[in-house]
């Protein structure tokens, strides 16, 4: 029930709908019981058992309520029908119809209001999950498969709606329906109702045994759904490579293995779940059968119960079966919902290690320097950076070079605070980045990566991501600085052209220039370029390099470079090897040392 309580917190904004649902459910439960009790006077008229009553009866106390109501209805039937029995029959049939009409009207109104609560909770959980997905650090997704996260935000949340939130409909209505029905049953025959209560616990025990393993089965189903969604996501992302290496059959095999497991888990879960309804119904009919025997004896032999009351009593007894079945089904729903809620809450309750202090510093300008003081960092067990020191003065360009795995991109991840250092401090103008608000820290920085991350949207909206509510003139100006304006104007709808998923309608150089335009539009004082030209051909590289140089003018830049030809004008070049600085200086100074940098330049020249 812990998960249920946690999910129920999301219902608070919609509690007025919950109260209205409860109100109409109470009325539904009451009229549900009364509609069956109203069968007694109708049957009395049919069986010609109606006593003619010419004076209105007097109400004595609650103990004689049943007799009073029966007398009162008989009085009304007598007054209305006189000697015409059909008139009396029409009256009691009308009474039954009105009661059933109100019962169904209140049922509709109860369902009407709970719909707003259920869908509102569904919306809010999804919104909170999306907010959390964006808020969690990049490191979280190196451990989680994207498809699994998608499964949690879609099917698991839907499962919560189907299982947990459907209980809200039953939590008042079904128990009250049973309660009111039992009260009327006690009113008709105390002895017979006591007999029913012997059988109900036995039926309940059998039903609860079936549902015990449902949570485990449901967990397997949901986990496997996340698995095959991950395979789909990876397939769509790497379709070009899959086709190039003729790996379609291999991926199909992986996917079909996952769907086969899903098939097996789903069959096991649904078959167990489907067992609930027939078992519940059979046990209910068993109770009805025993009642027919015991009640029939009371009518035919003991003469302690009249036939019309017994038939109405049987209707009431059957009226208990539907809510009892719904409650037993709901208990399975809770077990299934528990597995889904556990997976959803796992994300919602994950602590973000990249946290903000209370009242963080909001910094909107950059005046002196970025300083990395004696920092050490590891992703898992081995340190990527060890006792690393670096100062980037305002207005200078610092280039980081070295072989793959030397820690260049890690520095960009630490300065932007995508990760936190294990030891040491990173400061901007003397303020530790951990004391700055994440929004203002990243507001000071523009990032252009090796992979141009673009979205399935128009050129204008992709560039406009750099600045909210940017004007068309600002977007065009940024595109011109990035050498992108000319090729954009040649596109079918210019700036309004949709560039496809990940910008796949554009070439590598065009994508990169859009990324640069986005960074230019943001106009940050600090620019981080992570191997921004390494994936380009010579012609594209020239255009991109020119765009980068324009963008870096009068800015502080940290450039992570693979192609050394692009960083010859940097104020400082830092050569890294296994997370440590081995050389530092200008292009000419480092060449004259004939050390690691010189070797890297010679290797690229030969290449």
Automatic annotation (TrEMBL):
Domain of life of the source: Bacteria
GO molecular function, one term: ABC-type oligopeptide transporter activity
One term under GO cellular component: plasma membrane
PROSITE patterns hit by this protein: ABC_TM1F (PS50929), ABC_TRANSPORTER_1 (PS00211), ABC_TRANSPORTER_2 (PS50893)
Subcellular location: Cell membrane
Keyword Nucleotide-binding part of the UniProt annotation: yes
Name by which UniProt lists this protein: Antibiotic ABC transporter ATP-binding protein
Membrane topology note: Multi-pass membrane protein
Keyword presence, Nucleotide-binding: yes
Main localization category: membrane
Keywords attached to this entry: ATP-binding, Membrane, Nucleotide-binding, Transmembrane, Transmembrane helix, Transport
């Amino acid at each position: 029930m812990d998960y249920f309580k946690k999910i129920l917190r999301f219902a608070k904004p919609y509690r007025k709908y919950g109260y209205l649902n409860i109100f109409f459910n109470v009325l539904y439960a009451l009229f549900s019981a009364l509609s069956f009790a109203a069968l007694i006077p109708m049957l009395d008229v049919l069986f010609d058992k109606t006593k003619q009553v010419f004076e209105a009866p007097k109400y004595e106390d609650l103990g004689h309520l049943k007799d009073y109501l029966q007398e009162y209805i008989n009085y009304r039937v007598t007054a209305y029908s006189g000697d015409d029995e059909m008139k009396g029959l029409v009256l009691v049939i009308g009474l039954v119809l009105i009661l059933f009409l109100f019962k169904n009207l209140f049922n509709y109104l109860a369902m009407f209001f709970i719909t707003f609560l259920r869908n509102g909770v569904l919306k809010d959980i999804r919104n909170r999950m999306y907010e959390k997905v964006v808020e969690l650090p990049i490191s979280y997704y190196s451990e989680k498969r994207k498809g699994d996260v998608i499964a949690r935000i879609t099917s698991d949340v839907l499962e919560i709606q189907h299982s947990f939130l459907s209980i809200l409909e039953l939590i008042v209505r079904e128990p009250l329906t049973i309660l009111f029905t039992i009260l009327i049953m006690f009113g008709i025959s105390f002895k017979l109702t006591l007999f029913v209560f012997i059988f109900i616990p036995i039926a309940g025990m059998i039903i609860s045994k079936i549902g015990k393993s449902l949570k485990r089965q449901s967990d397997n189903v949901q986990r496997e759904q996340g698995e095959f969604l991950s395979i789909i996501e990876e397939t769509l992302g790497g379709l070009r490579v899959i086709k190039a290496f003729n790996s379609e059959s291999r991926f199909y095999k992986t996917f079909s293995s996952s769907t086969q497991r899903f098939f097996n888990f789903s069959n096991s879960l649904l078959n167990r779940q489907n067992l609930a309804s027939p078992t519940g119904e059979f046990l209910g009919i068993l109770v009805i059968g025993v009642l027919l025997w015991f009640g029939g004896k009371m009518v035919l032999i003991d003469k302690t119960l009249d036939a019309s009351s017994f038939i109405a009593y049987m209707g009431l007894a059957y009226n208990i079966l539907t809510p009892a079945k719904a409650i037993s089904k709901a208990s399975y729903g809770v077990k299934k919902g528990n597995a889904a809620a556990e997976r959803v809450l796992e994300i919602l309750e994950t602590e973000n290690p990249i946290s903000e202090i209370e009242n963080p510093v909001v910094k909107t300008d950059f005046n002196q320097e970025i300083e990395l003081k004696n920092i050490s960092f590891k992703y898992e067990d081995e340190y990527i950076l060890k006792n690393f020191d670096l100062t980037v003065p305002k207005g200078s360009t610092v280039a980081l070079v070295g072989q793959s795995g030397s820690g260049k991109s890690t520095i960009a991840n630490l300065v932007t605070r995508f990760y936190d250092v294990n030891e040491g401090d990173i400061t901007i103008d003397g303020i530790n980045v951990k004391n700055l608000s994440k929004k203002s820290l990243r507001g000071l920085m523009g990032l252009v990566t090796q992979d141009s991350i673009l979205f399935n949207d128009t050129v204008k909206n992709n560039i406009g991501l750099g600045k909210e509510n940017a004007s068309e003139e600002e977007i065009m100006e940024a595109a011109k600085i990035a050498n992108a304006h000319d090729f954009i104007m040649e596109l079918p709808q210019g700036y309004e052209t949709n560039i496809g998923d990940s910008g796949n309608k554009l070439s590598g150089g065009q994508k990169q220039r859009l990324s640069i335009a986005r960074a230019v539009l943001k106009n940050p004082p600090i620019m981080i370029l992570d191997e921004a030209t390494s994936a380009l051909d010579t012609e594209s590289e020239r255009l991109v390099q020119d765009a980068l140089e324009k963008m870096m003018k009068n800015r502080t830049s940290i450039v992570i470079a693979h192609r050394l030809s692009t960083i010859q004008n940097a104020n400082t070049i830092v050569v890294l090897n296994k997370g440590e600085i081995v050389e530092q200086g200008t292009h000419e100074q480092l060449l004259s040392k004939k050390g690691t940098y010189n070797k890297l330049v010679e290797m690229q020249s030969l290449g």
